[in-house]
Structure formats: structure tokens, C-alpha cells
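idk why but the lab printer keeps eating my pages so im just putting this in chat instead. protein + 2-acetamido-2-deoxy-beta-D-glucopyranose:
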Amino acid sequence: MGFTFACRLMLLVAAASMLGVSHANKDWGSPKSSYTGWGWGWGWGWNSTNKHPLNETQGPQKMIVGGSQNWHFGFNYSQWAFQNAPFYFNDTLVFKYDPPSNNTFPHSVYLFPDRWSYLNCNLKRAKMIANATQGDGDGFEFVLDKWSPFYFACGERNGIHCKAGGMKFMVVPLFRFHY
Ligand SMILES: *[C@@H]1O[C@H](CO)[C@@H](O)[C@H](O)[C@H]1NC(C)=O
Ligand SMILES: *[C@@H]1O[C@H](CO)[C@@H](O)[C@H](O)[C@H]1NC(C)=O
Ligand SMILES: *[C@@H]1O[C@H](CO)[C@@H](O)[C@H](O)[C@H]1NC(C)=O
Ligand SMILES: *[C@@H]1O[C@H](CO)[C@@H](O)[C@H](O)[C@H]1NC(C)=O
Ligand SMILES: *[C@@H]1O[C@H](CO)[C@@H](O)[C@H](O)[C@H]1NC(C)=O
Ligand SMILES: *[C@@H]1O[C@H](CO)[C@@H](O)[C@H](O)[C@H]1NC(C)=O
Ligand SMILES: [Cu+2]
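predcted complex ->
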């Protein structure tokens, strides 16, 4: 990641004071879908045609991974994460997927321990955080509770869903200054 946390923070403070506004068109998929924090991270997701006033009263957000697409084979989740950045510390990601049946492929959620495993979809040291049935119903919820990158992927078919199905993405939670 190049930047240390301190650098990131400084960059963020500078950006926040310069901009003071946020981007919209995120598919948070929750009742609080009108998120208007001062969010800006890594230069991603900025949409200058979409200015909202600062709202400092909102807490952590809950968002459905993939939005209305949920968690399935053949969708570019890296792109989804890119378009929906930034994500903040204590935000919740919701993975929704059908349980195994005769006409659905099973999915799951794994966390890679490092960037190399993530890039190679190497599941050897990855940790399963949700099995094939846990995405059913309201989905599997995961809180971004660390200040380090999270490397998510589907662990099915020995990495094929990760490699060929687009079912992988990285999230670096940012610090939210105000609630
Ligand atoms: C910015 O948001 C507006 C309104 O939601 C949308 O029409 C436009 O396509 C977006 N632009 C980019 C570059 O995402
Ligand atoms: C900010 O968000 C909170 C929680 O969603 C909402 O109750 C409040 O009306 C919003 N304030 C403004 C100024 O939009
Ligand atoms: C997914 O989207 C990213 C960013 O837009 C792009 O770099 C990547 O090549 C895409 N991956 C696939 C498998 O299409
Ligand atoms: C994150 O959530 C935990 C548990 O709800 C809470 O104790 C903690 O203060 C929160 N941290 C931040 C930085 O919001
Ligand atoms: C699924 O397939 C099995 C074996 O082919 C069959 O016995 C079962 O009835 C099927 N279940 C459904 C819900 O179609
Ligand atoms: C998945 O995990 C849930 C909750 O821990 C458990 O009840 C269920 O039996 C597991 N399912 C499979 C297929 O392992
Ligand atoms: Cu999968």
C-alpha cells in the first residue's frame, strides 16, 4: 500500500478541508441510503456532479456487497468496491447469496491473509468467514473492525470463483472523523 496510515490520514485531512463535500450514487442498500459524509478516499468514487452538504450525524453504514447484484459468479466486485469507496472503520458489509440447491452454485466468503494470496486467489492460508449457507436470508454481516486492508473472496471451486468469477475485492477502511 505504499502509504503509512499517518500519511493517509494527512492526505485525507487535506482532501476533506479542500472539498468538504461528498459523492453520492452509492448503493448502500440500507434504509440509511442517503449517506452524505465528507467521504473521499484515494481519489476514488469522487463525483463532482453530485454535491451534498456535510452531514456529520451519521454513524457506521451497512452496505450490501454488489448492491442489487448480491454475491454471485461473473460480477466484477473489484470494480464495485472501487466505485463504492470509501469504506469506513466499523462499516458493515453484507454478503447475500443463495444456499446450495440443484440450480444454484454454492458461494462462500473467505479472507486472505495478505496481498499476494489475494492477487493469486491462493486459498491455502485463507480463512473462511462464511460458509455456503450463511449468505441466505438477510445475508452474512461482516464489520470492518481493523485498520488494515481486507481481502475478500469467494472460496468455492478451489479459487475459480475468485479467479474467473470476479468474486474478490479489497477494502481499506478509512477513519470517520465525525458522527
Ligand atoms: C455522477 O452522478 C450523476 C448523478 O447521479 C450521474 O448521472 C453521473 O453519471 C455520475 N458521473 C460519474 C462520472 O460517475
Ligand atoms: C443527517 O443524517 C441524519 C441521520 O440519517 C438525519 O437524521 C439528518 O436529518 C441529516 N441531516 C442533514 C442536515 O441532512
Ligand atoms: C474489473 O474492474 C477493474 C476496474 O475497473 C478492472 O481493472 C479489471 O480488469 C476488471 N476485471 C475483470 C475480470 O473484468
Ligand atoms: C467501532 O465499534 C465498536 C463496537 O460497536 C465501538 O466500541 C468503537 O468505539 C467503534 N469505533 C469507532 C472508531 O467508531
Ligand atoms: C435436486 O436433485 C435431487 C437429485 O437429482 C432430487 O432428488 C431433488 O428432488 C432435487 N431437488 C429439487 C428441489 O429440485
Ligand atoms: C454453516 O455455518 C452455520 C453457522 O455456523 C452452521 O449452522 C451450518 O451447519 C454450516 N453449514 C455448512 C454447510 O457447513
Ligand atoms: Cu462463488
